[in-house]
């Protein structure tokens, strides 16, 4: 890792081994943001179901149909923020997400 730090890939803010903080120089942040933004879409389905479950579970046990409706509502609310799998219906994605 020291070689990467010396190449300018990132900066190390502290010299102590367990307390090091890594930062990315400003000129390299757009490239890193590109990969971050693409990687986040891998977790959208899981995140939507988890958020719907967290909100619904405050009222006790949650039926699968209620969880499905809450997740659908969230996915519609955030449809312009995230990319969903092309060619698959919401029901298919939801069922696959619950199946793990």
Query: Which band does the percent of strand residues land in?
Result: under 5%
Order of helices and strands: HEEHHHH
Large-scale geometry: elongated
Q: How large is the count of helical segments?
A: 5
Class derived from helix and strand content = mainly alpha
Strand order of the largest sheet: 1-2
> What distance lies between the first and last C-alpha atoms, to the nearest angstrom?
35 Å
Helix content: 40-55%
Radius of gyration computed on alpha carbons: 20 Å
Low-confidence stretches: none
Number of strands: 2
Q: What number is the mean pLDDT?
A: 84
Largest sheet: 2 strands, antiparallel
Protein described:
The protein is mainly α. Helix content is 54%, strand content 4%. A two-stranded antiparallel sheet has the order 1-2. α3 crosses α4 (64-77). The longest helix has 14 residues, at 64-77. The mean pLDDT is 84.
Descriptive tags:
single chain, 100 residues, mainly alpha, two-stranded antiparallel sheet, 5 helices, 2 strands, 54% helix, 4% strand
What is the element layout, followed by pairings?
Layout: H1 2-7, E1 11-12, E2 22-23, H2 29-39, H3 44-56, H4 64-77, H5 90-99
Antiparallel strand pairs: 1-2
Helix pairs in contact: 3-4
Quick take:
This protein has 100 residues and is mainly alpha-helical.
